[in-house]
Specification:
alpha+beta, Alpha-D-Glucose-1,6-Bisphosphate, Chain A, domain 4, seven-stranded antiparallel β-sheet, 25% helix
């Protein structure tokens, strides 16, 4: 069983309330996702703020432009500090994404930890080496740039 983690940190020159307001709104997901992912939220109604138990469905095109349904559940929320989303339906055998916010040096350090397991056993391990790791890095590089422009941030790691 192949199991992987992807971690990313970013310092944002903003208040924790500002950052939380942005990242805790599912409506902002499209803004921080590259257009190449073909990301569209398919949930019929979305509240302005996430909550524990919230289900969000999307269509994404992670590989070769092939549309894939992805459904996540927000499993944990502590306002102004963290939230967790977990895949319920989607391309991974397992996906658990922790989002942490911490006030530091007059701004906010945002940390992401994604724990995931690709499907298809041995083939998933190969896919992770050849495609998945670099795709995750590319997605988070895009997000870094968007948030850097939004909050005039600098990279921590």
């Amino acid at each position: 069983m192949a199991f992987y983690q992807f971690k990313r940190e970013q310092f944002l020159n903003a208040s924790i309330e500002e950052v939380w307001d942005f990242v805790s709104s599912p409506k902002n997901l499209k803004e921080i996702t590259p257009d190449t992912m073909g990301f569209d939220i398919t949930s019929e109604t979305l509240p302005d703020k996430m909550y524990e138990g919230m289900i969000i469905s999307y269509k994404v095109k992670p590989l070769l432009g092939i549309p894939t349904t992805w459904v996540t559940e927000i499993t944990h929320v502590q306002d102004l500090h963290y939230f967790v989303d977990e895949q319920r339906i989607g391309p991974y055998k397992m996906w658990h994404h922790e989002h942490f916010l911490e006030e530091k040096d007059g701004g906010v350090v945002m940390k992401d930890i994604i724990s995931y397991q690709p499907p298809f056993g041995f083939l998933g391990r190969i896919a992770n080496t050849l495609v998945i790791k670099s795709k995750l890095s590319s997605i988070f590089n895009y997000r870094f740039k968007v948030l850097e422009q939004k909050y005039n941030s600098i990279k921590v790691q």
